[in-house]
Design the sequence.
């Protein structure tokens, strides 16, 4: 358990340093949010491992690739941006972004528009969309989605409500809650109540940490040792 907090502390520490230190270069993905810093020839290089870590976690938990999924992301902060960019780069079927502050969701969708100009046709719903965080708007989307991702802190506190109540969810959905911890998060509980498949953020934590390890040490991460440490 202490190791789990060590991984989170490292990640939070990197974000804080990144904000102050203005790393010398960033990979393209890092336009969204740096969570890993490496000192390279006396220069600080910033990376983001959340997006790829998320993609690996989805593959591990649900045995599917992002390119085959219609995805809705809840949130517009650093993690939501990294996940949205990863979905876009992997050419997901559809991407819907909703956020408490709607203008942030709309801005993020606009930044990603260039990725969604391809020929895929999905009927009456747009491939890329920002919607208000409102029950009616979310209810309309459910039939046109496969995966819903919580990228807000809702669930960090046990007393938090599920970001989407169980009555709006449906059995065909996959739910990925980036929030991790002991036991079920409120979103995972709501998903299970609705008959959907669900995973919390532990596997994303593992994979984004493994990717950071690979950046720092330039060798394959001891993934099973890390998985064991998170239990
Ligand atoms: N599993 C992992 O490996 C991993 C790694 C990093 C983070 N995380 C999880 O991701 C979460 C988000 O991290 P972040 O860095 O993206 O945070 P952030 O940049 O502060 O963004 C937080 C987002 O959540 C929204 N939000 C905050 N409180 C809310 C509420 N009460 N109701 C609805 N929306 C709310 C904010 O909306 P506004 O724009 O309206 O303020 C914003 O879009 C963390 O809390 C953590 O649990 C998981």
Sequence:
């Amino acid at each position: 358990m202490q190791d789990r907090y060590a991984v989170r502390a490292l990640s939070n520490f990197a974000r804080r340093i990144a904000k102050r230190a203005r790393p010398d270069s960033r990979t393209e993905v890092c336009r969204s949010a740096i969570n890993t810093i490496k000192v390279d020839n006396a220069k600080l290089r910033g990376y983001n491992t959340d997006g790829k870590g998320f993609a690996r976690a989805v593959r591990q938990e649900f045995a599917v690739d992002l390119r085959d999924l219609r995805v809705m992301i809840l949130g517009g902060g650093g993690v939501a941006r990294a996940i949205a960019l990863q979905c876009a780069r992997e050419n997901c079927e559809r991407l819907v972004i909703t956020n408490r502050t709607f203008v942030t969701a709309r801005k993020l969708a606009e930044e990603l528009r260039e990725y969604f100009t391809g020929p895929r046709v999905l009927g009456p719903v747009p491939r890329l969309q920002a919607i208000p965080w409102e029950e009616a708007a979310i209810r309309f989307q459910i039939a046109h989605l496969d995966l819903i991702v919580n990228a807000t802190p809702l669930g960090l506190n046990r007393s938090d409500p599920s970001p989407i109540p169980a009555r709006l969810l449906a059995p065909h959905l996959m739910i990925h809650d980036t929030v991790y911890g002991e036991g079920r998060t409120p979103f995972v509980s709501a998903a299970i109540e609705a008959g959907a498949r669900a995973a919390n953020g532990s596997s994303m934590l593992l994979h984004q940490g493994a990717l950071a390890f690979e950046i720092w040490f330039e060798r394959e991460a001891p993934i099973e040792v890390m998985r064991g440490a998170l239990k």
The pocket of NAP is lined by residues 50, 75-80, 99-101, 104, 151-154, 156, 178-180, 201, 204-205, 208 (CB under 6 Å).
